[in-house]
Amino acid sequence: MIDVGIEKEKTNELIEVVGKESLIAEKEADAAAIQQEETEKMTQAAKEKKASCDAELADAIPAMEKAQEAVNCLNVGSIQELKSLGSPPEQAKQVSFAVMILKDGVMKNHNWANAQKMMKDPKKFIDEIVAFDGDNIEDKRLDGLKPLLSQDWFNFEVMKGKSVAAAYLCSWIVNIVGYNTIFKKVKPLKDSADEAQATADAKGEELKVVIEKVRQINEHVDNLKAKLAEAEANKKRVEDEAEVLNA
């Protein structure tokens, strides 16, 4: 015969263990809930910063697209034609000098012979313009371009009557500089958005660990509760049997 006292003792021990483990589970769950709320706030803040950044950068996209269109319109034949001119229009020369400043950072020795050297290999020249980093342009290059960019004739419409290649190079310069101006203004916001997103992502990974820990604890508590239910059933059965015997 099973001892009723022993069954009661086993059940009471389990009740105590389940109570302690349940309390731990509740505390961990509360901590996880707080961390989840903080993570969600960080994620939302990161999304808002990114949206603001994207909105600002949207203003720069048309300029970048126009610069890209100008580059796409350049071809080996037009560059070959431009560089082969013995005495090109003065404004076409000035555009080539602007390219020397922007592309290569050449701030002096602006003459047609050096411009021709720059365009010596038309395909290589075009490839270098295609690969040009519009995000990062030195301030000294931008300063060097200002006198030319301020000229009324420094635009595609005027230059297309002088030289097709010079016109597209002019359009590229105007638009890539316009893009860069906006990008540099937005860059701090972009950096802040990237940093916020990185922090939110890191917190999200930490939260996954916490949630898994809570899941394991709850699973453990559920197993203990199942054992407790079984023990209570055994205790009742033993008590019922003892009551029958003592009747």
The CA-CA distance between the termini, in Å, is 16 Å
Low-confidence segments: none
In total, the number of domains comes to 1
Radius of gyration: 37 Å
The CATH C-level name is: Mainly Alpha
Order of helices and strands: HHHHHHHHH
CATH topology (level 3) name: Histone Acetyltransferase, Chain A
Share of helix, binned: over 70%
- Beta-strand residue percentage: under 5%
* Secondary structure: number of strands: 0
Specify the structural class: mainly alpha
CATH architecture: Up-down Bundle
Shape, principal axes of CA atoms: rod-shaped
Individual helix count: 9
Instruction: Provide mean pLDDT, rounded.
Output: 85
Biggest sheet character: none
Task: Reconstruct the topology from this structure.
Blueprint: H1 4-58, H2 61-73, H3 76-83, H4 90-104, H5 112-118, H6 122-130, H7 139-149, H8 156-159, H9 164-246
Helix pairs in contact: 1-9, 2-9, 4-7, 4-9
Q: Would you mind describing this structure in some detail?
A:
Helix 2 (61-73) packs across helix 9. This protein has one domain (1-247): Histone Acetyltransferase, Chain A (Up-down Bundle). It is mostly helical and 247 residues long. The protein is built from nine helices and no strands. It starts with a helix and ends with a helix. It is rod-shaped and about 125 Å long.
Keywords:
247 residues, single chain, 9 helices, mainly alpha, Histone Acetyltransferase, Chain A
